[in-house]
Design brief:
Layout (H helix, E strand, L loop, with lengths): L1 E4 L3 H6 L1 H13 L3 E3 L9 H5 L3 H14 L6 E3 L2 H15 L5 H10 E3 H8 L12 E4 L3 H7 L3 H8 L5 E2 L15 H4 L1 H17 L4 E4 L2 H13 L5 E4 H5 L6
Parallel strand pairs: 1-2, 1-3, 3-4, 5-6, 5-7, 7-8
Helix pairs in contact: 5-6, 5-8, 7-9, 11-12
Length: 241
């Protein structure tokens, strides 16, 4: 099997190693990887900020960049959720109707793809640390992701997964929400990080790097003994191709 990968603009610019680690994990699972260098953004940021014309133009490019792909795999549940949920509003009954419907069916967040398409639960990773898991709003409520990430983490050797209270509570990032409503956003990050600290975990793990960046910012500001890491960074730990 060969899949196309979508590396979101956020990961491309701020966390490129996470993109490389997703490739590493997919190849370990026996999957060939194709990367279209013309890809840019799915349009989520513009869409959520109310710039629908701009979002639609970006969405048109996104659809054409991944036209006729069997599978598109991404390390961002929020970006996959954008395509699955909101391209309907921009492209229904348009010239790109059939193309977007095909893409909507074929785009997967990476843990969902590993567990439910490839039936892979153990990638051979080792990570000897205590971790807790943050369910991002987009992953949980828009994409519908819940057990897949935990299934993969439970098969990582040496890893101890400790669930925090209110794991599905928002961390306060919310894209431009964290800029427009900074005091509220910071208070929500504080609440979320405190729930993680209560578990005694060393790392907060999630499927969305934006949430992790927000929480890591609060952690760094307060000099707390806690770190954040994307799920695929954990899955790529402890082995070599």
């Amino acid at each position: 099997m060969v899949v196309d990968i979508f590396i979101p603009c956020f990961i491309d610019q701020a966390y490129p190693e996470t993109g490389f680690n997703m490739v590493k994990v997919l190849e370990k699972a026996g999957v060939g990887v194709r990367y279209n260098k013309n890809q840019t953004c799915c349009g989520q940021i513009a869409f959520n900020s109310g710039f629908w014309d701009h979002a639609k133009a970006m969405g048109e490019k996104f659809i054409r960049d991944f036209k006729d792909c069997q599978y598109v795999v991404t390390p961002s549940a929020s970006c996959a959720g954008m395509v699955r949920n909101y391209y309907d509003e921009m492209f229904y009954n348009s010239a790109l109707h059939n193309e977007y419907r095909l893409l909507k069916k074929n785009i997967y967040e990476v843990s969902d793809f590993l567990v439910n398409v490839l039936n892979v639960k153990d990638v051979g990773a080792t990570f000897k640390h205590k971790v807790t898991f943050h369910d991002s709003c987009a992953a949980l409520r828009e994409y519908g992701l819940k057990d897949e990430s935990r299934t993969l983490l439970r098969h990582v050797r040496g890893l101890e997964l400790i669930e925090m209270k209110e794991t599905n509570t928002c961390c306060g990032f919310g894209g431009t929400f964290s800029v427009k409503h900074e005091p509220i956003s910071t208070a929500m990050a504080e609440y979320k990080v405190n729930r993680a600290l209560e578990t005694g975990a060393e790392f907060i793990i999630s499927t969305d790097s934006s949430c992790l960046m927000h929480q890591q910012g609060y952690i760094d500001q307060k000099n707390l003994s806690l770190k954040t890491a994307h799920l695929v960074d954990i899955l790529a730990s402890g082995w070599e191709l």
